[in-house]
Design brief:
mainly alpha, 4 helices, 0% strand, elongated
Length: 87
Amino acid sequence: MPTLGLAIYLAWRTRKQIADFLPNLAICFWITANSIWMADEFFELGIKSISALFFIGGLVVILFWVVRYFPGLWKKAKILDEKNENV
């Protein structure tokens, strides 16, 4: 619970910067999925299949981030490196 709480807190803090928010949201999905999976392993609740929804949700969010925002971040880093080399 503390790990999930911290992940939700970090996602909430970065909600206005979408490029930072999406990876944090994916982490929230994955921690939730792992928690459900572990609870099922320990208590034999038969809810493992629900965790797949959260794993897929996290994967969709991170894939969207990679396609939409990662190229721009990569480009910014490359430009900064070139500026530093010219100085």
